[in-house]
Write a structure and sequence with these properties.
- The strands form four sheets. This protein has a five-stranded mixed beta sheet with strand order 1-2-8-5-3.
- 51% of the residues lie in helices and 11% in strands.
- With 346 residues, the protein is α+β, with helices and mostly antiparallel strands.
- The model has no long low-confidence stretch (mean pLDDT 95).
- The protein has 15 helices and twelve strands.
- The chain has helices spanning 10-14, 16-26, 41-49, 66-79, 82-87, 89-102, 109-126, 130-137, 143-155, 161-166, 172-203, 205-213, 218-228, 261-264, 299-316; strands at residues 29-32, 35-38, 53-55, 106-108, 238-240, 244-246, 249-251, 256-259, 321-322, 327-328, 338-340, 342-344.
- Strand 1 (29-32) and strand 2 form a beta hairpin.
- The structure holds protoporphyrin IX containing FE.
- Residues 48, 61-62, 73, 122, 181-182, 185-186, 189-190, 193, 230-232, 235-236, 288-292, 294-298, 301-302 line the site of protoporphyrin IX containing FE.
């Protein structure tokens, strides 16, 4: 019989990676209160790309399936292009420099840098006017502000993501839901990912030094922090559309399956010394951005933001050190990361 993984326990809250390691070493999956947690790389990858599983149904892009998902995703992709992301790179750098210049010598990285950066960058990328930015990206961001934004861009289209989205053949409900997802998840994920990255570098100061000395490590650093300390731990749950057999285990139709990407990313069968942050070794591609049809739409943007910000900070703050305890959100939250990260900039 397979093991039980207690996602509500204090052990998981205080050190989720240690609990996942133990469970992963014991078996490729474990029962949890949220469904069957799949823990090893190959099996997580298989779950993410299986046609026999779907995400939980809801109106957001991530909750759609089949041709409905294909249609909305295609429209979103026509606006959210790789070219638009690449053209945004230099603006990301300016925004980071602007924020760095304003900071004193002791800061809470989350409140003073990660949150304003993530929110500011997303609003600029999407095309949200500054005065609406805070309201549009707050977790309670209502339909009203999204409606106002769409009306604004219908009246006055410019060369931004919103104007391009209103031009796509989406229903009003699909459009509102998509913009709402982009605004809320696009800011929170990056905020938590940047903070998780800085917390990881505090544990591995030599890696921070290396990044500060050599900006060509930016791409590898972005991938490695996203592997090592992802801002989503449990992955997006999947539901079995029919009875499925995974590694000889039958999961009946309707079973809930958690592709635990944070665990897959530290599978020692795939990653050498997986519990070490090392930006100098080539690694297999991690699974933090998911896989299959739901692969993160914003992965390119998140990568550009991390690639531009992290080397800048490593150059600006070579003597960065911890200045108090790091507080983390709950590892079962959809987005995971530090909620307070006091640092002294040296
Ligand atoms: C480091 C930051 C980020 C992480 C770790 C992350 C992670 C993820 C994950 C795990 C999924 C689900 C993949 C799956 O279930 O297979 C996802 C989907 C999605 N992400 Fe991200 N994400 C990040 C940043 C962003 C940004 C910046 C945006 C937009 C501005 C964004 C927009 C989306 C959308 C719209 C989906 C749904 C895609 C679909 O269902 O087709 N994400 N993301």
């Amino acid at each position: 019989m397979t093991g039980l993984l207690d996602l509500g326990g204090e052990d998981f809250r205080s050190d989720p990676h240690a609990v996942l390691r133990k469970a992963r070493e014991a078996d490729w999956w474990a029962e949890t209160s949220l469904g069957a947690a799949v823990l090893r790389f190959d099996e997580v990858q298989a779950v993410l790309s299986s046609w026999s599983l779907r995400t939980e149904a809801n109106a957001a892009l991530s909750g759609l399936d089949g041709t409905e998902h294909q249609r909305v995703r295609r429209s979103a992709g026509r606006a959210f292009t790789a070219r638009r992301v690449e053209e945004f790179r230099s603006e990301t750098g300016f925004l980071a420099d602007e924020l760095v210049d304003r900071l004193g010598s002791s800061v809470d990285f989350v409140a003073d840098f990660a949150r304003p950066f993530a929110v500011g960058a997303l609003c600029r990328f999407v095309g949200v006017p500054e005065e609406l930015c805070e309201a549009a990206t707050s977790e309670e961001s209502g339909d009203e502000v999204v409606g106002d934004l769409l009306d604004l861009r219908r009246r006055t289209p410019v060369n931004d993501l919103l104007s391009s989205l209103v031009d796509q053949s989406l229903t009003e409900a699909e459009l509102r839901s998509l913009v709402n997802t982009l605004l809320v998840s696009g800011a929170r994920t990056v905020q938590h990912q940047l903070s998780a990255a800085v917390a990881a570098f505090l544990e591995f100061p030599r890696q921070w030094e290396l990044l500060g000395e050599d900006s060509s490590l930016a791409g590898a650093a972005a991938e490695e922090v996203v592997r090592f300390s992802p801002s989503m731990l449990l992955g997006t749950p999947r539901i079995a559309k029919e009875d499925i057999v995974l590694n000889g285990v039958t999961l009946p139709a309707g079973s809930r399956v958690l592709p635990v990407t944070a665990s897959a990313n530290r599978d020692a069968a795939v990653f050498a010394a997986p519990d070490r942050l090392d930006i100098t070794v080539p690694r297999t591609a991690h699974l933090t951005f998911g896989g299959g049809i739901h692969y993160c739409l914003g992965a390119g943007l998140a990568r550009v933001e991390l690639q531009e910000v992290l080397p800048r900070l490593a150059r600006a703050w070579p003597g960065m050190r911890a200045n108090g305890d790091v507080e983390w959100s709950s590892p079962t939250d959809a987005v995971y990361g530090p909620t307070a990260l006091p640092i002294s900039l040296g």
